[in-house]
Amino acid sequence: xxxxxxxxxxxxxxIRVSGVVISLLIIAVAAxxxxxxxxxxxxxxxxxxxxxxxxxxxxxxxxxxxYFGTAIVCFGLSFRIDxxxxxxxxGALGLAIGWSVQDLTKSLAASIVIMFxxxxxxxxxxxxxxxxxxxxEIGLLSVRINTLDHNIVTVPNNMVLxxxxxxxxxxxxxxxxxxxxxxxxxxxxxxARELIREACLTSRYVYLDRGVPVxxxxxxxxxxxxxxxxxxxxxxxxxxxxxxxxxxxxQVQRALAAEGILPPAILHRPxxxxxxxx
Length: 278
Hints:
By secondary structure, the chain is of the alpha+beta class. It folds into three domains: about 1-115, Orthogonal Bundle (Helix Hairpins); about 125-165, Roll (SH3 type barrels), CATH 2.30.30; about 175-260, Alpha-Beta Plaits (2-Layer Sandwich), CATH 3.30.70. It is built from nine helices and ten strands. The strands form three sheets. A five-stranded antiparallel β-sheet has the order 4-3-2-1-5. A three-stranded antiparallel β-sheet has the order 7-9-8. A hairpin with a 3-residue loop joins strand 2 (about 130-140) and strand 3 (about 140-145).
């Protein structure tokens, strides 16, 4: 304990009061700069929709540059830098880490890993810990996700690296949107597949540069047989995902009904001896 107090006292003696005052001004300017960058990013993203993810990536790197640049400049102005300073501050930081800030240090280290390893990018649509939404901020300590019901979920960086994160588009605007449909086992599967494919291709939200496979397999639902048809189209922008799903499902329901293709149902087949009796 006495050793810790001694090191803290040495740090205080190395502080430059004038440098601290200037550092506070620099921090205020950095905060204003970050707000301005966020505002410009929002306006540019709305105007140049096709470049939205690229603009957000530039914002992310700019934020990190401002964070680290401000930290380095403020540190240089606030302390008299020499070998003694490095030794004392290093010892104090080690003591602090031993006391209470292991998670903070892990999050700081994880932010660097996220920036260079890039398990996801700003603007990506991800699934993490049961939360599904868009990455809107990658900070020094945490990642923020805007869910589809507009809740902002904050996740510490160290938790992001230790758990599985599923990324739907990974830096692209387009994203695959699987859609599942069910029809009866005695219905026209080939016709149903074509109707589903047509509904996907004629939607205003489909990304046409990708194909639209429609996969079929026979399954058992509540003890009776049905066909499961899975379409795998791409939406042209992740922000239209749910509108795209609604559009396609509505068109498919209408088309299947028009063709008389029915949903799964229990089949009542006559027995062989019943036909003989008839």
